[in-house]
């Protein structure tokens, strides 16, 4: 493969430590700061707006930013955490690309609508469950625990207890499927 100017620039940034320190630092800082801003753990403060004189209540950005800054530095100081973050984010991005590719393929077979292609509520829920388990498996694999879980499951799969649990889940699922009926809008208003 020929070395291009862009490949050389990426290799130079890698030697500088951009991918091992700066980008993980920015990612952790952004996520922690956003979490602290949303939850307002450090409280809020009031001040009067200079434009219209209204009383404003805002989060304590100075405390949130210092806490996020410190936590991000602690994370970057640990090479194991940086490696875990790099592996985890690359696999999550791959999962996002797979979901996008699937919806693009399914959308190409749909008839054209004004608002575009959207999955109905059932398929959205199915996708959310699949993506949740996908992210959980990615996390377990990144920590190295997936092999332990798979070894434990393969040892348990042949046992009678596992067969009993699978049979109970199938029976309960079948019972729920047979007895479930969608509630009609007219019935809900009468009660």
Whole-number mean pLDDT? 84
Structural class: mainly alpha
Report the total helices. 8
The strands making up the biggest β-sheet line up spatially as 1-2
Give the terminus-to-terminus CA distance: 71 Å
Q: Please state the overall shape, judged from the principal axes of the Cα atoms.
A: extended
Radius of gyration from CA coordinates: 25 Å
DSSP E strands, number: 2
Order of helices and strands: HHEEHHHHHH
Question: Structurally, how many domains make up the residues?
Answer: 2
Question: Which percent range fits the helix content?
Answer: over 70%
Main β-sheet description: 2 strands, antiparallel
Fraction of residues in β-strands: 5-15%
Poorly predicted regions: none
Strand and helix map with partners:
Layout: H1 5-16, H2 18-39, E1 44-48, E2 55-59, H3 61-77, H4 79-108, H5 121-143, H6 146-157, H7 160-179, H8 185-190
Structure description:
With 191 residues, the chain is mainly alpha-helical. The protein folds into two domains: 1-77, no CATH class; 79-144, no CATH class. It is built from eight helices and two strands; from the N terminus they run ααββαααααα. The chain has helices spanning 5-16, 18-39, 61-77, 79-108, 121-143, 146-157, 160-179, 185-190, and strands at residues 44-48, 55-59. Helix 2 packs antiparallel against helix 3.
Quick summary:
With 191 residues, the protein is mainly alpha-helical.
Q: Can you tag this structure with a few keywords?
A:
191 residues, mainly alpha, 2 domains, two-stranded antiparallel ribbon, 8 helices
């Amino acid at each position: 493969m020929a070395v291009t100017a862009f490949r050389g620039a990426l290799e130079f940034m890698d030697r500088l430590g951009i991918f091992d320190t700066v980008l993980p630092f920015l990612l952790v800082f952004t996520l922690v700061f956003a979490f602290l801003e949303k939850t307002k753990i450090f409280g809020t403060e009031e001040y009067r707006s200079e434009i219209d004189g209204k009383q404003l209540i805002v989060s304590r950005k100075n405390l949130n930013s210092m806490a996020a800054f410190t936590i991000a530095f602690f994370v970057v100081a640990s090479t194991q955490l940086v490696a875990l973050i790099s592996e985890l984010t690359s696999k999550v991005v791959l999962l996002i690309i797979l979901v996008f590719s699937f919806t693009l393929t399914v959308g190409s077979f749909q008839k054209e609508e004004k608002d575009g292609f959207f999955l109905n509520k059932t398929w959205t829920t199915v996708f959310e469950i699949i993506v949740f388990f996908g992210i959980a498996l990615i996390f377990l694999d990144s920590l190295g625990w997936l092999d332990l879980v798979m070894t434990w499951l393969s040892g348990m799969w042949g046992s009678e207890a596992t067969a009993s649990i699978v049979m109970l889940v199938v029976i309960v699922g079948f019972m729920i499927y047979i007895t479930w009926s969608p509630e009609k809008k007219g019935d809900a208003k009468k009660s």
